[in-house]
Amino acid sequence: MRDPVRLDQPLTAAQIAAVAHGATLSLSDAAQGRIAAARGIVDALIDRGIRGYGINTGVGALCDVLIDRPEQAQLSRNILFSHACGVGAPLSATEARAVMAAQVNLFALGYSGIRPVVVDHLVALLNAGVVPLIPARGSVGYLTYGAQIGLLLIGEGMALCDGKTMSARDALARAGLQPLTLAAKEGLSLVNGTPCSTGLACLALDRLASLCDWADASAAMTYSVLGQQAAPFDDTAMHLRQAPEMWQVAGNMRDALGNHRPAILPDRTQDPMSLRAVPHVHGAVRAAMRQAAEIITRELHSASDNPTVGGTPDAPKVYSTAHAMGNSLAIALDQMAIAAAQLGMISERRTDRLVNPLVSGLPAFLARDSGLQSGMMIAQYTAAGLVAENRRLAAPASLDGGITSALQEDILPHPTSAAEKLHRLLDNLELLFAIELICAAQAIDLTTGAPASPAIARTYRHVRRIAPVYADDRPLNTLIQAVAEMLRQPALQPEPVPA
């Protein structure tokens, strides 16, 4: 069970990920005060008849159409129905929770002007394990995801509760809640801003950080079988290059390998690049991840909806800006995708060296009875296919552009699409590491029969608890999938090594 998360100052990416994975969320008095104060400013804007986008006007290309006060609540409701236009399979419950947590974080900054009761409902739904069904496709930024969350609040649409699909009204009842009637601006607040892409970005950052540890563990296990260079990860040599993340990976490799030197092949002057460049490639991924984390942290501290409100009830201000544009976030997510794709690419190259009898010095395709058995031959095919798919998924969404709302919104950064395809890429990355781990474990069993060090033995045991020695005696994909799912279990993570 994850520790509860309390929102006082802006949440961290790690806290968003914790809520996504089931941690409960609560708001401090200070956070609740900021939400209430912002709502007081919206009420003052309405009372004074000050024009505010989506408060007393239409939205998008209809921003100059004035909405009378009696109809402003209806506008909020209408926005949810018209913007609930996503299609395709839904987000997972974990992904939906990440989006909702980021949404609460945005409202708690105190610039959105949504009523406290709406935020209280969002928190109560999270803590009750209730999320809306959010179709994952068709969002150019944020609108469709947020609309589905808003529909749940008003008792419309479908929801997930304890893994079961049910109507929104039934799900609200399970959580002990009544459907809300939204007030002015709240419909727009619920569909606006970058919490959709920010929440998914926090979750992706958490997943990639975990997979970086597994990448080092996988590489060390493969190197223990194939590596022949005397000191490829020497600390002095590594520090000749100014790359702290590379130093970290090199240290992880040294600690994992211990004093082991494999003896399958004669000593090499240089190992192949996919073996000796592990610190350089894995380290570059960690560096990209650190840079992305800085962008994500800034996003969590930023008011990203439109409009935002400020001033006081006596002197209310409304700011119509482009803060909902997630360009920085989209670029950061695209960079993470490229980095993660490289991590999978080098893993596949190591897998090929394990199964390829032309270079491995091991039984062909790691089969016990070559010819009668194909061993891991087709597992490498699968890895090659996944790497090719990742190459396509790493194409930048931030350059897709697009024109919507009758030229009113005539440039789009696509951060939510960037986040969504990054998660698909990370799914593939888990499978790629699963294939490498199964092949490396098979190579150990066909050679020394014993792991080379305590750290490698720990990784080997994780694999062998799920995937026994392979003898063409079962569908190989079942083992690959089982090991990939293991990589999502925090309790089985390799112990991180300090830099």
UniProtKB/TrEMBL annotation:
Swiss-Prot/TrEMBL keywords: Lyase
InterPro entries in the cross-refs: Aromatic_Lyase, Fumarase/histidase_N, L-Aspartase-like
Top-level taxonomic group: Bacteria
GO molecular function term, any single one: ammonia-lyase activity
CDD domains, per database record: PAL-HAL (cd00332)
The name this protein goes by in its record: Histidine ammonia-lyase
